[in-house]
Amino acid sequence: MRGAPPGGEIGRLARRELAILGGASRHVKAGGLLVYAVCSLFPEEGELVLAKFLAANAQHFRVEDLRSLPRGAALEAFR
Description:
mainly alpha
């Protein structure tokens, strides 16, 4: 893919992002919201990281469409 990092760089970054996501998830209170957003176009760094995280944490987290969340000033910037 054009613009892809060299060698195994994407895999290394994806492992790092999964670790960051896992670390952040430990600070979310029950009923809380954890937003995972990336600027990468590579599925290995976005969708696949999220899929791995959810596979290991499905009992605590689920994917929500941002449009389904209650309207509020804090979320208006993302609509």
